[in-house]
Amino acid sequence: MDVPRLKQSWSLVAAHGDQVPLYFYSTLFLAYPETRQMFPTNMAGQRDRLVTALGHIVSQVDQVDRLVGFLQDLGVDHRKFAVRAEHYPAVGEALLATLRHFLADQWTDELAQDWAAAYGLVAQVMTEAAQAAEATSPPWWAAEVVGHERRAFDVAVLTLRPQYLLPFTAGQSIGVSHPAVRSWRYYSPANAPRADGTVELHVRAAPGGAVSSRLVYGCAVGDQVHLAAPVGDGLTLRAAGSADLLLLAGGTGWAPLKALVEQVAAEGSRRRVDVYVGARSRSEFYDGDALEKLTASYPWLSVTQVVGLDLNRPGEFVYPVDRALADGDWRSRHVYVCGSDDMVSHTVAILTRSGFHAGQVHHEGLGRHWYGPSWRTAVGGPAVSDDSGGAR
Protein backbone atom coordinates (compact mmCIF):
# COMPACT_ATOMS: atom_id res chain seq x y z
CA MET A 1 0.00 0.00 0.00
CA ASP A 2 1.48 3.32 -1.12
CA VAL A 3 0.45 5.65 1.73
CA PRO A 4 1.55 8.98 0.15
CA ARG A 5 -0.30 8.06 -3.04
CA LEU A 6 -3.39 7.18 -1.01
CA LYS A 7 -3.34 10.49 0.84
CA GLN A 8 -2.76 12.53 -2.29
CA SER A 9 -5.65 10.89 -4.11
CA TRP A 10 -8.00 11.55 -1.20
CA SER A 11 -7.04 15.23 -1.11
CA LEU A 12 -8.02 15.48 -4.77
CA VAL A 13 -11.36 13.77 -4.16
CA ALA A 14 -12.17 15.74 -0.99
CA ALA A 15 -11.70 19.00 -2.93
CA HIS A 16 -15.04 18.24 -4.63
CA GLY A 17 -16.82 18.89 -1.32
CA ASP A 18 -20.46 17.90 -0.91
CA GLN A 19 -20.54 16.20 -4.29
CA VAL A 20 -18.47 13.32 -2.90
CA PRO A 21 -20.90 11.99 -0.26
CA LEU A 22 -23.84 12.78 -2.54
CA TYR A 23 -22.37 10.57 -5.27
CA PHE A 24 -21.38 7.87 -2.77
CA TYR A 25 -24.80 7.51 -1.16
CA SER A 26 -26.59 7.71 -4.51
CA THR A 27 -24.40 4.88 -5.77
CA LEU A 28 -24.90 2.81 -2.62
CA PHE A 29 -28.68 3.22 -2.48
CA LEU A 30 -29.19 2.56 -6.18
CA ALA A 31 -27.13 -0.63 -6.12
CA TYR A 32 -28.27 -1.79 -2.67
CA PRO A 33 -31.65 -0.15 -1.89
CA GLU A 34 -32.04 -2.23 1.27
CA THR A 35 -29.31 -0.14 2.91
CA ARG A 36 -31.39 3.08 2.74
CA GLN A 37 -33.43 2.15 5.82
CA MET A 38 -30.25 2.11 7.92
CA PHE A 39 -29.82 5.87 7.51
CA PRO A 40 -31.80 8.88 8.78
CA THR A 41 -34.37 10.56 6.57
CA ASN A 42 -32.34 13.78 6.57
CA MET A 43 -28.95 12.85 5.15
CA ALA A 44 -27.23 16.23 5.55
CA GLY A 45 -25.39 15.33 8.73
CA GLN A 46 -24.59 11.86 7.46
CA ARG A 47 -22.85 13.31 4.40
CA ASP A 48 -20.63 15.45 6.62
CA ARG A 49 -19.68 12.42 8.69
CA LEU A 50 -18.62 10.34 5.74
CA VAL A 51 -16.16 12.86 4.32
CA THR A 52 -14.63 13.78 7.68
CA ALA A 53 -14.34 10.17 8.86
CA LEU A 54 -12.71 9.10 5.62
CA GLY A 55 -10.31 12.01 5.87
CA HIS A 56 -9.40 10.98 9.40
CA ILE A 57 -8.87 7.35 8.40
CA VAL A 58 -6.68 8.25 5.45
CA SER A 59 -4.63 10.72 7.49
CA GLN A 60 -3.95 8.02 10.09
CA VAL A 61 -3.52 5.06 7.75
CA ASP A 62 0.23 4.92 8.42
CA GLN A 63 -0.32 5.10 12.22
CA VAL A 64 -2.05 1.79 12.78
CA ASP A 65 -2.02 1.88 16.58
CA ARG A 66 -3.96 5.16 16.65
CA LEU A 67 -6.32 4.15 13.87
CA VAL A 68 -7.28 0.72 15.18
CA GLY A 69 -8.88 2.03 18.38
CA PHE A 70 -10.93 4.53 16.40
CA LEU A 71 -12.11 1.86 13.97
CA GLN A 72 -12.94 -0.58 16.75
CA ASP A 73 -15.12 2.01 18.48
CA LEU A 74 -16.72 2.78 15.13
CA GLY A 75 -17.47 -0.87 14.42
CA VAL A 76 -19.04 -1.43 17.83
CA ASP A 77 -21.05 1.78 17.56
CA HIS A 78 -22.40 0.91 14.09
CA ARG A 79 -24.26 -2.08 15.51
CA LYS A 80 -27.03 0.26 16.61
CA PHE A 81 -27.66 1.05 12.93
CA ALA A 82 -28.11 -2.70 12.25
CA VAL A 83 -24.87 -2.79 10.24
CA ARG A 84 -23.76 -6.39 9.65
CA ALA A 85 -20.68 -7.96 8.11
CA GLU A 86 -22.43 -8.49 4.77
CA HIS A 87 -22.97 -4.73 4.38
CA TYR A 88 -19.26 -3.88 4.23
CA PRO A 89 -18.62 -5.16 0.67
CA ALA A 90 -21.50 -2.99 -0.59
CA VAL A 91 -20.01 0.09 1.06
CA GLY A 92 -16.57 -0.75 -0.32
CA GLU A 93 -17.97 -1.11 -3.83
CA ALA A 94 -19.69 2.28 -3.61
CA LEU A 95 -16.55 3.89 -2.19
CA LEU A 96 -14.30 2.64 -5.01
CA ALA A 97 -16.87 3.74 -7.59
CA THR A 98 -16.93 7.21 -6.02
CA LEU A 99 -13.16 7.52 -6.00
CA ARG A 100 -12.96 6.34 -9.60
CA HIS A 101 -15.58 8.89 -10.66
CA PHE A 102 -13.90 11.94 -9.10
CA LEU A 103 -10.32 10.97 -9.94
CA ALA A 104 -11.31 10.27 -13.55
CA ASP A 105 -8.17 9.77 -15.67
CA GLN A 106 -5.97 9.86 -12.54
CA TRP A 107 -7.56 6.61 -11.35
CA THR A 108 -5.11 3.75 -11.95
CA ASP A 109 -4.99 0.03 -11.25
CA GLU A 110 -2.32 0.66 -8.61
CA LEU A 111 -4.49 3.24 -6.86
CA ALA A 112 -7.47 0.90 -6.99
CA GLN A 113 -5.36 -1.77 -5.26
CA ASP A 114 -4.25 0.74 -2.60
CA TRP A 115 -7.81 1.76 -1.80
CA ALA A 116 -9.10 -1.81 -1.84
CA ALA A 117 -6.38 -2.79 0.64
CA ALA A 118 -7.06 0.21 2.87
CA TYR A 119 -10.80 -0.40 2.91
CA GLY A 120 -10.23 -4.11 3.51
CA LEU A 121 -8.29 -3.23 6.67
CA VAL A 122 -11.01 -0.83 7.83
CA ALA A 123 -13.78 -3.37 7.23
CA GLN A 124 -11.86 -6.17 8.95
CA VAL A 125 -11.15 -4.17 12.12
CA MET A 126 -14.70 -2.82 12.37
CA THR A 127 -16.28 -6.22 11.71
CA GLU A 128 -14.13 -8.05 14.23
CA ALA A 129 -14.79 -5.42 16.89
CA ALA A 130 -18.53 -5.63 16.30
CA GLN A 131 -18.50 -9.41 16.49
CA ALA A 132 -16.50 -9.35 19.73
CA ALA A 133 -18.93 -6.86 21.25
CA GLU A 134 -21.86 -9.17 20.57
CA ALA A 135 -20.61 -11.42 23.36
CA THR A 136 -20.74 -8.67 25.97
CA SER A 137 -23.48 -6.18 25.08
CA PRO A 138 -26.55 -5.80 22.86
CA PRO A 139 -26.61 -3.36 19.91
CA TRP A 140 -28.96 -1.18 21.96
CA TRP A 141 -31.09 -1.28 25.11
CA ALA A 142 -34.86 -0.75 25.15
CA ALA A 143 -35.85 1.65 27.92
CA GLU A 144 -39.20 2.86 29.27
CA VAL A 145 -39.81 6.52 29.99
CA VAL A 146 -40.86 6.54 33.66
CA GLY A 147 -40.57 10.29 34.19
CA HIS A 148 -40.94 13.31 31.89
CA GLU A 149 -40.80 16.85 33.28
CA ARG A 150 -40.88 19.97 31.13
CA ARG A 151 -38.61 22.37 33.02
CA ALA A 152 -38.73 25.09 30.35
CA PHE A 153 -40.30 25.58 26.95
CA ASP A 154 -37.43 23.74 25.25
CA VAL A 155 -35.98 21.68 28.13
CA ALA A 156 -37.20 18.40 29.58
CA VAL A 157 -35.80 16.09 32.23
CA LEU A 158 -36.47 12.43 31.46
CA THR A 159 -36.08 9.41 33.70
CA LEU A 160 -35.55 6.15 31.82
CA ARG A 161 -35.60 2.56 33.03
CA PRO A 162 -33.65 0.23 30.70
CA GLN A 163 -35.05 -3.26 30.24
CA TYR A 164 -31.61 -4.62 31.15
CA LEU A 165 -28.89 -2.96 33.22
CA LEU A 166 -26.95 -0.43 31.15
CA PRO A 167 -23.49 -0.10 32.72
CA PHE A 168 -21.87 3.33 32.47
CA THR A 169 -19.53 5.61 34.36
CA ALA A 170 -20.47 9.11 35.52
CA GLY A 171 -19.38 11.55 32.82
CA GLN A 172 -19.83 9.16 29.90
CA SER A 173 -22.44 9.64 27.17
CA ILE A 174 -25.05 7.22 25.89
CA GLY A 175 -26.77 7.19 22.51
CA VAL A 176 -30.51 7.88 22.55
CA SER A 177 -33.02 7.29 19.78
CA HIS A 178 -36.80 7.28 19.57
CA PRO A 179 -38.29 4.40 17.53
CA ALA A 180 -40.09 6.95 15.34
CA VAL A 181 -36.81 8.66 14.38
CA ARG A 182 -33.95 6.95 12.51
CA SER A 183 -31.32 9.11 14.18
CA TRP A 184 -29.25 9.00 17.33
CA ARG A 185 -28.10 11.76 19.63
CA TYR A 186 -25.69 11.40 22.55
CA TYR A 187 -26.51 12.62 26.05
CA SER A 188 -24.59 12.32 29.29
CA PRO A 189 -26.70 10.93 32.14
CA ALA A 190 -27.24 13.44 34.94
CA ASN A 191 -26.68 10.77 37.56
CA ALA A 192 -24.08 8.31 38.74
CA PRO A 193 -25.13 4.66 38.30
CA ARG A 194 -28.12 3.84 40.50
CA ALA A 195 -29.15 0.62 42.18
CA ASP A 196 -32.44 0.60 40.25
CA GLY A 197 -30.65 1.14 36.93
CA THR A 198 -32.61 4.28 36.00
CA VAL A 199 -31.01 7.05 33.95
CA GLU A 200 -31.77 10.78 34.13
CA LEU A 201 -31.37 12.83 30.94
CA HIS A 202 -31.47 16.61 30.52
CA VAL A 203 -32.61 17.39 26.97
CA ARG A 204 -32.84 20.73 25.21
CA ALA A 205 -34.74 20.73 21.91
CA ALA A 206 -32.34 21.83 19.17
CA PRO A 207 -33.80 23.76 16.22
CA GLY A 208 -34.57 21.15 13.57
CA GLY A 209 -33.36 18.38 15.85
CA ALA A 210 -35.41 15.25 15.22
CA VAL A 211 -34.33 13.32 18.32
CA SER A 212 -34.20 16.17 20.83
CA SER A 213 -37.54 17.62 19.67
CA ARG A 214 -39.18 14.22 19.93
CA LEU A 215 -37.81 13.71 23.45
CA VAL A 216 -38.91 17.15 24.65
CA TYR A 217 -42.23 17.68 22.85
CA GLY A 218 -43.38 14.26 21.64
CA CYS A 219 -42.49 11.90 24.47
CA ALA A 220 -44.48 10.83 27.53
CA VAL A 221 -44.38 8.44 30.45
CA GLY A 222 -44.83 4.89 29.16
CA ASP A 223 -43.10 5.50 25.84
CA GLN A 224 -40.11 3.43 24.82
CA VAL A 225 -36.75 4.72 23.61
CA HIS A 226 -33.53 3.00 22.57
CA LEU A 227 -30.18 3.51 24.30
CA ALA A 228 -26.73 2.73 22.92
CA ALA A 229 -23.61 1.67 24.78
CA PRO A 230 -21.76 4.39 26.73
CA VAL A 231 -18.80 6.11 25.10
CA GLY A 232 -16.19 8.69 25.99
CA ASP A 233 -13.98 9.19 29.03
CA GLY A 234 -13.09 12.87 28.72
CA LEU A 235 -15.45 13.83 31.54
CA THR A 236 -14.90 10.87 33.86
CA LEU A 237 -13.04 11.28 37.15
CA ARG A 238 -10.40 8.69 36.31
CA ALA A 239 -7.78 11.24 35.27
CA ALA A 240 -8.33 13.50 38.27
CA GLY A 241 -7.31 11.01 40.94
CA SER A 242 -8.28 12.36 44.36
CA ALA A 243 -7.82 16.04 43.47
CA ASP A 244 -10.32 18.74 44.37
CA LEU A 245 -12.57 19.75 41.50
CA LEU A 246 -13.84 22.85 39.73
CA LEU A 247 -16.89 22.10 37.57
CA LEU A 248 -17.95 24.61 34.89
CA ALA A 249 -21.30 24.02 33.17
CA GLY A 250 -23.32 25.85 30.55
CA GLY A 251 -27.02 25.10 30.10
CA THR A 252 -27.80 21.38 30.02
CA GLY A 253 -24.04 20.77 30.14
CA TRP A 254 -24.78 20.65 33.87
CA ALA A 255 -26.03 17.06 33.41
CA PRO A 256 -22.71 15.11 33.39
CA LEU A 257 -21.23 17.40 36.04
CA LYS A 258 -24.21 16.66 38.27
CA ALA A 259 -23.35 12.98 37.78
CA LEU A 260 -19.79 13.70 38.92
CA VAL A 261 -21.10 15.34 42.10
CA GLU A 262 -23.16 12.22 42.80
CA GLN A 263 -20.12 10.03 42.20
CA VAL A 264 -17.99 12.06 44.61
CA ALA A 265 -20.74 11.70 47.20
CA ALA A 266 -20.95 7.93 46.64
CA GLU A 267 -17.17 7.55 46.97
CA GLY A 268 -17.12 9.43 50.26
CA SER A 269 -13.76 10.96 49.30
CA ARG A 270 -14.59 14.36 50.82
CA ARG A 271 -12.71 16.17 48.12
CA ARG A 272 -13.69 19.81 47.68
CA VAL A 273 -16.01 20.49 44.72
CA ASP A 274 -16.96 23.95 43.46
CA VAL A 275 -19.56 24.23 40.72
CA TYR A 276 -20.37 27.19 38.47
CA VAL A 277 -23.52 26.73 36.39
CA GLY A 278 -24.24 29.27 33.65
CA ALA A 279 -27.39 30.27 31.79
CA ARG A 280 -28.27 33.22 29.57
CA SER A 281 -30.94 34.48 31.98
CA ARG A 282 -32.09 33.62 35.47
CA SER A 283 -35.25 31.97 34.14
CA GLU A 284 -33.15 29.41 32.27
CA PHE A 285 -31.81 27.70 35.41
CA TYR A 286 -34.00 24.64 34.96
CA ASP A 287 -32.56 22.41 37.74
CA GLY A 288 -32.62 24.85 40.67
CA ASP A 289 -34.30 22.51 43.16
CA ALA A 290 -31.64 19.85 42.61
CA LEU A 291 -28.86 22.42 42.97
CA GLU A 292 -30.25 23.57 46.29
CA LYS A 293 -30.71 20.01 47.54
CA LEU A 294 -27.16 19.02 46.62
CA THR A 295 -25.69 22.10 48.30
CA ALA A 296 -27.68 21.47 51.46
CA SER A 297 -26.66 17.80 51.57
CA TYR A 298 -22.89 18.05 51.10
CA PRO A 299 -20.69 20.47 53.07
CA TRP A 300 -17.80 19.92 50.63
CA LEU A 301 -19.89 21.26 47.72
CA SER A 302 -20.38 24.88 46.66
CA VAL A 303 -22.65 25.92 43.76
CA THR A 304 -22.72 29.33 42.07
CA GLN A 305 -25.24 30.25 39.39
CA VAL A 306 -23.91 32.59 36.71
CA VAL A 307 -26.29 34.72 34.64
CA GLY A 308 -24.67 35.37 31.27
CA LEU A 309 -26.64 38.41 30.14
CA ASP A 310 -26.75 41.61 32.17
CA LEU A 311 -29.27 44.20 30.96
CA ASN A 312 -27.09 46.89 32.50
CA ARG A 313 -24.14 45.81 30.35
CA PRO A 314 -25.43 45.25 26.80
CA GLY A 315 -23.05 43.43 24.52
CA GLU A 316 -21.25 41.63 27.33
CA PHE A 317 -21.65 37.96 28.18
CA VAL A 318 -20.34 36.37 31.37
CA TYR A 319 -19.30 32.74 31.18
CA PRO A 320 -18.98 30.51 34.26
CA VAL A 321 -15.17 30.51 33.89
CA ASP A 322 -15.13 34.33 33.99
CA ARG A 323 -16.97 34.38 37.30
CA ALA A 324 -14.92 31.50 38.72
CA LEU A 325 -11.56 33.11 37.97
CA ALA A 326 -12.82 36.38 39.44
CA ASP A 327 -13.68 34.52 42.65
CA GLY A 328 -10.34 32.81 43.26
CA ASP A 329 -7.24 30.91 42.17
CA TRP A 330 -8.15 27.35 41.14
CA ARG A 331 -4.87 26.22 39.61
CA SER A 332 -4.54 23.38 42.12
CA ARG A 333 -7.87 21.91 40.92
CA HIS A 334 -8.81 19.57 38.12
CA VAL A 335 -11.39 21.38 35.98
CA TYR A 336 -14.31 19.76 34.15
CA VAL A 337 -16.10 21.73 31.43
CA CYS A 338 -19.34 20.94 29.62
CA GLY A 339 -21.68 23.06 27.52
CA SER A 340 -21.97 24.36 24.00
CA ASP A 341 -18.97 24.30 21.69
CA ASP A 342 -18.60 28.07 22.09
CA MET A 343 -18.69 27.80 25.88
CA VAL A 344 -16.15 24.98 25.97
CA SER A 345 -13.80 26.68 23.51
CA HIS A 346 -13.93 29.97 25.41
CA THR A 347 -13.40 28.23 28.74
CA VAL A 348 -10.43 26.13 27.62
CA ALA A 349 -8.77 29.18 26.04
CA ILE A 350 -9.22 31.27 29.18
CA LEU A 351 -7.94 28.49 31.46
CA THR A 352 -4.90 27.92 29.26
CA ARG A 353 -4.01 31.61 29.33
CA SER A 354 -4.49 31.59 33.10
CA GLY A 355 -1.83 28.93 33.66
CA PHE A 356 -3.81 25.69 33.73
CA HIS A 357 -2.04 22.81 32.00
CA ALA A 358 -3.80 20.49 29.56
CA GLY A 359 -3.74 17.51 31.92
CA GLN A 360 -5.96 19.24 34.48
CA VAL A 361 -8.66 20.54 32.11
CA HIS A 362 -11.18 17.91 31.06
CA HIS A 363 -13.87 18.10 28.36
CA GLU A 364 -15.18 16.14 25.42
CA GLY A 365 -14.15 16.96 21.87
CA LEU A 366 -16.01 19.63 19.94
CA GLY A 367 -18.45 19.07 17.10
CA ARG A 368 -22.05 18.05 17.64
CA HIS A 369 -22.38 16.14 14.37
CA TRP A 370 -20.56 13.00 15.50
CA TYR A 371 -22.12 9.78 16.62
CA GLY A 372 -20.60 10.28 20.03
CA PRO A 373 -17.73 11.71 22.04
CA SER A 374 -15.23 9.11 20.83
CA TRP A 375 -15.73 10.41 17.28
CA ARG A 376 -15.50 14.04 18.32
CA THR A 377 -12.35 13.48 20.33
CA ALA A 378 -10.64 11.51 17.59
CA VAL A 379 -11.49 13.73 14.68
CA GLY A 380 -11.89 17.15 16.28
CA GLY A 381 -14.17 18.32 13.51
CA PRO A 382 -16.07 21.59 13.42
CA ALA A 383 -19.50 21.94 14.91
CA VAL A 384 -22.49 21.34 12.66
CA SER A 385 -26.06 22.14 13.61
CA ASP A 386 -27.31 18.59 13.50
CA ASP A 387 -29.19 16.26 15.78
CA SER A 388 -27.51 12.94 15.24
CA GLY A 389 -24.69 13.17 17.67
CA GLY A 390 -22.91 15.31 20.14
CA ALA A 391 -23.34 16.76 23.52
CA ARG A 392 -25.77 19.00 25.19
Give an overview in words:
With 392 residues, the chain is α/β, with parallel strands linked by helices. It is built from twelve helices and eleven strands. The protein has helices at residues 3-14, 19-31, 44-59, 64-77, 88-103, 109-133, 210-217, 254-267, 288-297, 320-327, 341-353, 373-379, and strands spanning 141-152, 155-162, 174-177, 185-187, 199-204, 224-227, 245-250, 273-279, 301-307, 334-338, 361-362. The strands form two sheets. The protein has a six-stranded antiparallel β-sheet with strand order 4-3-6-1-2-5. A five-stranded parallel β-sheet has the order 9-8-7-10-11, sandwiched between helices. β8 (273-279), α9 (288-297) and β9 (301-307) form a beta-alpha-beta unit. α1 runs antiparallel to α3 (44-59), α2 (19-31) crosses α3 (44-59) and α4 crosses α6 (109-133).
Feature tags:
392 residues; 16% strand; disordered C terminus; 6-stranded antiparallel beta sheet; 11 strands; 5-stranded parallel beta sheet; alpha/beta
Question: What is the strand and helix layout of this fold?
Answer:
Blueprint lengths: L2 H12 L4 H13 L12 H16 L4 H14 L10 H16 L5 H25 L7 E12 L2 E8 L11 E4 L7 E3 L11 E6 L5 H8 L6 E4 L17 E6 L3 H14 L5 E7 L8 H10 L3 E7 L12 H8 L6 E5 L2 H13 L7 E2 L10 H7 L13
Parallel strand pairs: 7-8, 7-10, 8-9, 10-11
Antiparallel strand pairs: 1-2, 1-6, 2-5, 3-4, 3-6
Helix pairs in contact: 1-3, 2-3, 2-5, 4-6, 5-6
